[in-house]
Amino acid sequence: MSKFQSAESYSNDKYKLLPIRFSEAYDNKYIVTNMVGEYEILDFDIINRLVNNDVIHDKNLLGRLYSKHFIYDGTDHTALKLLGLKYRSKISRLKEFTSLHMVVVSLRCDYTCSYCQVSRQGLKADFDKYDMSIKTADKVIDLIFSSPSKGIKVEFQGGESLLNFKIIKYITEICHLRGIQENRNVQFVIATNLSMLDDEIINFIKKYNIYVSTSLDGPRSLHDRNRPKPENDGYDLTIKGIKNIQENVSLSQVTALMTTTGRSLDYGIEIVDEYIKNDLSAIFLRPLSPYGFAITKKQINQYDTDRWLEFFKNTLDYIININKNGYNLMEQYSSLILTKILSPKDLGYVDLQSPSGAMIGGIIYDYDGSVYASDEARMQAAMGNFKFKLGHVDENSYEEMIGGEFILDAIDKSMSVSVPSCTSCAFLPYCGSDPVYHFATQNNVVGNKQISGYCKKNMGVFKHLINLLENSDEETKRILQSWVRY
Amino acid sequence: MQKIITVNPDVVRSIFIDANLYPLEIIESSTIPLSPFGSFKISLSNQKFKIEIKLATDTDITMEDLCHSLENNIIHESLRLKIAEKTELERNLILSYTFSNTKLMG
A143-199 pLDDT, tens per residue? Predict the structure, then answer.
């Protein structure tokens, strides 16, 4: 008996269909995906033939459909087992539960950014009132270690986090020790504008291998306009801080993020050039925040989504050309999505998770001990909506917080596979759901996806990346493939 | 708050679909993606679905575009239902392979 089945057994109409979804991708071409996001671009006629078990004349296509587990021979379960294994890899983060713990150590800030959504307080505000206390920090640490996750990331945020370096130091030292005692891998990130960076902090970053995430919105004029600082030295201090970490810790220890304001939309090239000038290896083309005033002007938000998509596509083109010219610069949003499209991995980016990344992916402890399901939920609370508040460190246990009726209901409803429109969308394996966003914009945790800015933005990005993967030159494809993180 | 579309009551078109060919769930799911562009009233008589369509006032698309999209959606949704029915066994088996021997099972 031969080890292999005959070629005829794989041919034509002897196949059986496996679960697939299809959606229009571009130019009357359809994207077909399986349960784990492997994809093929097909004409509608081929999809129709597949579903009706008609003969597929293109032998190469037939081979690809078998190898990508869109069809199988109807008897051997190997394809089903492999799909099960890949699906398990995709959702493996669920058994880890909350691994990202964001700690707001101070609400005070030395900047006066107009896009800040967290009701920051001025530098001279009462630090007893707006900085996290040691008593609260102790309770936060206990809650962090109540999470079952073996890998824990503690991210310090603000206001300006380094204004309360004392508490960052305290929490880091204790979490580091508890991580060793409890055999957990604990990583630390400080989100900071870098204006308070000094030698003591540099040494501390080095000692605990802390990653630093800062904001760089573009060249001086744009950065200082987006992120005004009364002393007018915001850009200078940010660049000085980035250089300080690159030279005294390592190049990869500091990353920068940009927020795309309305005035940023015309400066994609200049923003990218600023990142290259400062030896940064990644840029995150973050969309406009849907919180604050944008919510009350929903139609404008839709318009902004179109403008942001145009900005994203043009800037991505420029980044790809920069890579072709020899400078390795990765666009991080594309990287997160390409990893979902081209690998069985999911990097766990909170905004692109189903069930929702809020609470499951990350949890945030505010300076005053309030606990929220996500950073956006904290922003919502600052605007008077406390629906996504999980509890308070002084009043609630870990179990009470993660078992809250409203949040469990929201997470239950955030399963995209059971959401109208999402359930049949071929992009579902790459997408997620964002109950906080949809509650903010539509007063409904599920949201009508036909009018959702979240859906419009992500569909636009997915289609653009798929189009590039399919229809661009080989070098562009190679660059995009190199952004997949395994 | 969710934006409520306004429709022009004078611009109405009805299309008829054979109820022996397509179930109600297909008709309903075909209209959902088009809800920002108009309103759809579905009724059944003499084994035919009557879909009464009113066009939204603030849309760039025409009534012809809307009807064309609806008819295409019905074909797409019908195919999706076939996929769901034909692959139900495989889907359940894949999920059982996914969750067996993992802590994800209760």
Answer: 999 998 999 999 999 889 999 999 999 999 999 999 999 999 999 999 999 999 999
* CB pair distance less than 8 Å for B103 and A95: yes
Nearest to A322 by CA among A353, A391, A276: A276
Give the ipTM of the model, two decimals please: 0.88
**Distance separating alpha carbons of residues A315 and A292, to the nearest angstrom:** 26
Chain B neighbors of A20, CB-CB under 8 A: 83, 87
Residues of chain B positioned with their CB less than 8 A from the CB of A35: 91, 94
- Which of A51, A72, A450 shows the shortest C-beta gap to B82? A51
Q: Residue B45 maps to which CATH number?
A: 3.30.1360.10
Residue A439 lies in a domain: yes
Q: With CB atoms and an 8 Å threshold, state whether B94 touches A421.
A: no
Number of domains in chain A: 3
Give how many domains chain B has, as a whole number.
1
Cβ-Cβ contacts under 8 Å, A459 against chain B: none
Alpha-carbon distance of B93 to B106, in angstroms, equals: 18
Measured CA to CA, the distance from residue A210 to residue A68 in angstroms comes to 40
Encode pLDDT of A70-118 as tens digits.
999 999 999 999 999 999 988 888 888 889 999 999 999 998 887 676 6
What length is written for chain B?
106
Q: Is residue B105 part of a domain?
A: no
- What is d(CA A135, CA A360) in angstroms, rounded to the nearest whole number? 26
Structural domain for B37, as ranges: 2-100
Q: Which one of B3, B80, B98 has the shortest CB-CB distance to A87?
A: B98
Contacts of B2 in chain A (CB under 8 A): 442-444, 448, 451
Domain span holding position A70: 12-90
Say how far apart CA A125 and CA A114 lie, in whole Å. 18
